[in-house]
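During the reporting period the student researcher (J.K.) took over the structure-prediction task from the postdoctoral fellow and processed the backlog of single-chain submissions. One of the processed entries is reproduced below for the supervisory committee.
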Amino acid sequence: MTGMMLYFALGLMVLTVLSNRYWRRQLVLTRAAMSKLKDKVEEVTADVAEVAADHGQLIQAQAELERRVQKAESDLQAAVLELDQKKAAPLDRYFVFDRNEPRPGRFWEVAVRYSPGGVSFADQRGYRGWTGIRRYLLTADGERDARERVSARYPRKAGFEILEVAGCRLSGLSVNRIAELSTFRMPGRAEENAPAGRPQRRATPARP
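J.K. obtained the following structure tokens:
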């Protein structure tokens, strides 16, 4: 009886040892699996965060694009409205005064009206097609210079009247003033080397 008890105790001890080793091995495998699962969860979490950041950027880009589209549509509507207004507005015609007289200064516009009443028929020749008010563009040093030049070409005694002298209101017209030189040409070598305040003397050909 005692021997059987010993064999039973020994068998139970061996079974306990084997069971303990088995469950320890299962615990190690479970911990390894949990570690791998944790790594995968962290990787998926990082991917989700990156996707969320990209999604947020896309939402901001979409909102910015929608804002630009709305602004472009508003600008287009304003441009179309302005174009329709300009098409419906009366046409402003300008006449070039200094066609063959380039000079330094700034652009001016002078409004001139022609009244043929009291003017002889001979003086009216050449101005019969003048109707209403004409606006002339010219370059001058100042308002007084512009007025005097236009008055010299269109005097009051011939039926002309200067109504307004103002700086040119046309966009894009500007003159860069160059002292003592024409604005519309480059100076020659002789003019560059000449002393200031003394005009250049023209060379005359020798007579045979």
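The committee noted the following: The chain has four helices and four strands.
J.K. will present the remaining backlog at the next meeting.
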